[in-house]
Specification:
The complex is a heterotrimer of chains A (372), B (103) and C (469). Chain A is an alpha+beta fold. In chain A, 28% of the residues lie in helices and 27% in strands. Chain A is globular and about 65 Å long. In chain C, a hairpin with a 4-residue loop joins strand 4 and strand 5. The chains are: A alpha+beta (372), B mainly beta (103), C alpha/beta (469). Strand 1 of chain B pairs antiparallel with strand 9 of chain C.
């Protein structure tokens, strides 16, 4: 039997970040990962690090997380590949501009000024190769991108340096509360801890159930494709207000195209299948906005297994039904940027009971309703 | 040195290899045109910048990527020559910038 | 309307399957990247540009008969159809004329063929270093040869190309044979069974004596091969009775072939490690039926069986598909299979002998120097990979994510086998426990425009259909 103060289920970025923030405070941590660290959504996502376009409930967390990204490499003594390139949402027409203005008013009323509306001239300056018909957009200056696999492992390696034990290839079979302990059974033996944290991503509803909480978690397979290297033509991360357009060019010249089109998630088989017709549409959209991409050569296509909540907001919360159990999952395909702050907040919840943020929108029991 | 064992070539076409006109048998591969013209460097390695050339000539290794008629990432070993085809060694490394001319 | 059977690849396996299906009234659709049917082994066998193609040998010439039978059988052969995805749902995507086509089929036969085993010796990325397979392809496709080249490695294909060069009057600077001495002892135990294929054995021996008679320098049991040159290859150094050095501007490497894994891996078919061939095989039954029943694999793409074996396997796969399509009874399938199965068994005994005799040495399969490139596309050396391993990337896919090894356009075809073996050594585990890259489609680079022009095809062009009515 191996014991620790805290047992974390799931070696994605939130689990690894939580392990790091706990271990640096001298807490003993065991992290169980059924495959290897960053195997799923945390390691194979699009690497976007953005505040732009977030739900208002997430903005305070996201802004602090963005500050943490700026100095993360030196804090973790690692190369996460983070680059602050700015991010631009393209407005294709006047209707998009109206949408942006409405959002700006809401954001300003809440005291947030990080999103700035730009006109057509400035859009062309930021994105010289954008289709000339695009009318403007919005920009967020601090946004950028990072390497998902390396970033997640940066937390993992830093956690290990502070003594955390990361156990890969070890799937949780059973978890139960006995007295003041959580006892976890795995094919590689039994683990015991006073506190458990559920960071199990697309599998988090199963872990939540073992803890005693029911959540309406869904899973899906957002698809990505990446090109062979091409000459540099775009610096900011690119999105669009009302079209499924999303891409970024990395320093090595490859261009990663996302856009949110989903393939087929086969969670039980640990795999995903792609929907090529939808990828063909994504290709068409990308060419429409950026004709320079016509001859880009797609090198790889893939999809990760990602967890979605019905409201597309994560669960960051103590358990509703059990003592000394916490959740951080369901980030609905935009959790990567939040990795640094979620680990900190989760550690704070465990250590002090004071997360330092209003997390009421992220309660695990927010879908519990009394039925008449 | 590469050479051709063909005894009679019924039909030839002219292509351009890195700016030089080359007369080659019709329907042979782009790689064969490069090999016979003696211009065997196909691409630069993206990281080291070293010269690379065809390795497997059967579509497996992707070492023979060249630019054909302005389109990059073409496998020279799988493409056939066509009259007037413009073939250029591919030079896309991590540091290549897009050409802003003509925008 | 879905197709009854789509065959991917028009090499010996695919062609013979199409012929067998046609014999029983099933008209298959055959998708092949090449301009002409034949695959690698029978490439242009029916339309050679060589003045006298018979110099390539009777095996090659025999391909013409199969190609002619295939072209006459009535199968719909789409040349230039570059299949870049076969799905476990039976959907197939291919590129043709700058567009993407999607088709659905009841049965799929995948015949992706072999690739040459990577030989990561120092300098193997230099221009002028090619594979023996490349020498063959250039010869067959466009009658192009390299004068005064060195051939290094071992295995039947290497000797065959050397012999073909010599018959055609092409000068060869030397044959650097790396077959280890102990292989002859290992192979001896398999020799009695192989003797039942005396003609095959004889063919191999006569190739070697042909090379000997030609009087070119032949170096035996060569080790520590290093390619020379800074910006392109200038020669090869090695040890064989002391340090040797040969100057050459072209060096052809070869030490055997392995199944081309990308399509069968991306399909998610079960694979098993085969210690005799030091390669992953697709797990199939006698008829090539894979872990997904409506997907079969035949020829070298499943396990190395050679051209003759591929021919038979294609026939067996077709018989099983005919049964699955309820065109023949199980009894008929079994009856018609009896003779090809026996023939395949005899060939496999000979194959076992060849596998032992030409088993590549570890020193050539695995790079011995820290700075030798492993991933040619992304310039990742042994040292780079070791550093990634030490940062916790113990799985081939984790190492790929960490270092970009295997992320380039070749999709790990060159580095994949090396990476799994390196990790096995570093982890102190067997390669079958380490596994292989998780592959995905596309199997080739695909322009964004090509993908965006996406069409679902439910039948062939009216022209092709009408011709059969």
């Amino acid at each position: 039997m191996k014991t620790a103060d805290v047992l974390i289920i799931g070696g994605g970025i939130h689990g690894s970040s939580t392990a790091y923030h706990l271990a640096r405070e001298g807490i003993s941590v065991i992290l169980l990962e059924k495959d290897y660290v960053a195997r799923h959504a945390s390691g194979v996502n699009a690497g976007g690090v953005r505040v732009l376009g977030r739900d208002l409930a997430e903005v305070p967390l996201s802004k602090i997380s963005m500050q943490m990204w700026q100095t993360l490499d030196s804090e973790l003594d690692a190369d996460t590949g983070f680059r602050s390139t700015s991010m631009v949402y393209i407005a294709a027409n006047e209707a998009d501009i109206t949408t942006l203005k409405q959002r700006e008013a809401r954001m300003n009323a809440a005291g947030h000024t990080h999103e700035r509306i730009i006109d057509q001239r400035e859009l062309r300056e930021l994105l010289p190769y954008v289709h000339p018909s695009c009318t403007g957009g919005a920009v967020s200056q601090q946004d950028g991108h990072a390497n998902p696999y390396r970033s997640t492992n940066a937390f993992r390696l830093a956690a290990e340096r502070f003594g955390a034990s990361i156990v890969e290839g070890t799937e949780l079979r059973n978890l139960r509360r006995v007295g003041s302990s959580w006892i976890a059974q795995t094919p590689k033996g039994t683990f015991e801890a006073g506190t458990v944290v559920n960071c199990a991503g697309a599998w988090a509803d199963k872990v939540a159930l073992m803890i005693g909480d029911n959540v309406p978690l869904n899973h899906a397979a957002p698809m990505l494709m990446i090109t062979a290297r091409m000459p540099h033509f775009v610096e900011p991360v690119v999105g669009a207000v009302s079209r499924q357009l999303s891409f970024k060019q990395f320093e090595n010249g490859t261009v990663l195209i996302g856009g949110g089109a989903k393939g087929f998630a086969e969670r039980a088989a640990n795999k995903t299948r792609l929907d090529y017709e939808k990828l063909a549409n994504a290709a068409r959209t990308t060419i429409d906005f950026f004709p320079i991409m016509t001859r880009a050569a797609i090198n790889r296509m893939w999809a990760g297994l990602e967890a979605y909540m019905p409201d597309n907001l994560p669960v960051v919360s103590p358990s509703a039904n059990a003592e000394n159990a916490f959740h951080a999952f369901g980030f609905s395909a935009h959790g990567f940027q939040l990795g640094p702050i979620i680990g900190k907040v989760t550690a704070d919840m465990i250590l002090t009971g004071q997360p330092g943020f209003d997390l009421s929108a992220f309660r695990v029991d927010r879908y519990d309703r009394k039925v008449l | 040195m590469f050479r051709s064992l063909r005894e009679n070539v019924p039909e030839t076409v002219q292509v351009s290899v890195n700016g030089h006109p080359v007369q080659v048998p019709a329907r042979q591969t782009v790689w064969s045109a490069l090999a016979l013209s003696g211009q065997t460097v196909t691409r630069k390695s993206a990281l080291s910048g070293e010269d690379r050339s065809a390795y497997c000539t059967m579509g497996v290794c992707f070492e023979c990527l060249v630019e054909i008629d302005g389109e990059p990432n073409q496998q020279a070993c799988l493409r056939e020559v066509a009259p007037g085809m413009v073939i250029v060694s591919q030079n896309i490394t991590e540091f290549t910038m897009a050409d802003r001319d003509g925008l | 309307m879905a197709f009854d059977c789509v065959i991917v690849g028009a090499g010996p396996a695919g062609m013979s399957a199409a012929v067998t299906l046609a014999e029983h009234g099933v008209r298959s659709l055959v998708l092949d990247r090449g301009a002409k049917a034949g695959g690698q082994i029978y490439r242009y066998a029916a339309s050679s540009p060589l003045p006298d193609p018979s110099k390539l040998g009777p095996d090659y010439m025999s391909g013409a008969a199969l190609i002619n039978a295939f072209e006459a059988c009535g199968a719909d052969h789409v040349a230039g159809a570059d299949v870049w995805h076969v799905g476990d749902d039976g959907r197939i995507l291919y590129s043709i004329d700058g567009e993407t086509r999607q088709i659905e089929t009841r049965e799929v036969l995948v015949c992706p063929g072999a690739i040459e085993r990577p030989m990561p010796i120092p300098g193997w990325t230099l221009p002028g270093v090619m594979t023996a397979g490349a020498a063959q392809v250039m010869l067959k496709t466009d009658a192009i040869v390299a004068e005064n080249a060195v051939f290094a490695g071992s295995g039947p294909l290497l000797y065959l190309v050397v012999a073909q060069y010599l018959r055609l009057g092409v000068k060869v600077a030397g044959l650097v044979d790396t077959t280890p001495r102990r292989n002859f002892l290992q192979a001896a135990s398999a020799a009695p069974a192989a003797l039942r294929s005396a003609s095959l054995l004889h063919k191999g021996i006569s190739l070697l004596s042909e090379i000997r008679r030609a009087g070119i320098p032949v170096y035996r049991q060569s080790v520590q091969l290093k390619l020379l040159g800074q910006t392109r290859v200038s020669g090869l150094s090695f040890y064989s009775n002391g340090l040797q050095q040969i100057e050459a501007d072209t060096v052809f490497l070869h030490h055997g072939v392995i199944p081309n894994p990308n399509m069968t891996r991306a399909l998610g078919l079960d694979h098993v490690w085969n210690e005799d061939q030091l390669a992953w095989h697709v797990k199939t039954d006698l008829y090539g039926q894979s872990s997904i029943p409506y997907i079969a694999v035949a020829g070298d793409g499943g396990a190395i069986v050679g051209g003759d074996g591929a021919h038979i396997e294609g026939r067996l796969a077709a018989l099983n598909i005919l049964m699955r399509l309820e065109r023949i009874s199980p009894e008929t399938r079994d009856r018609l299979s009896r003779s090809p199965v026996g023939e395949l068994r005899r060939l496999s005994q000979f194959r076992r002998f060849i596998d032992r005799l030409y088993r590549p040495s570890d020193a050539l399969r695995l790079p011995q120097d820290e700075d030798t490139p492993v991933c040619r596309c992304e310039d990742q050396s042994v040292a780079d990979l070791r550093a990634g391993f030490q940062l916790g990337a113990r799985d081939p896919n984790a190492l790929k994510s960490r270092t970009r090894c295997g992320m380039g356009p070749c999709q790990g075809r060159q580095c994949g086998p090396i990476v799994s073996d390196l990790l096995a050594n570093w982890r102190g585990e067997h390669v079958s426990d380490v596994g292989y890259y998780r592959m995905r489609s596309p199997q080739r680079l695909l322009s964004l425009e090509e993908l965006s022009r996406f069409k679902t095809v439910s039948s062939l062009q009216p022209r092709a259909r009408e011709a059969s009515r």
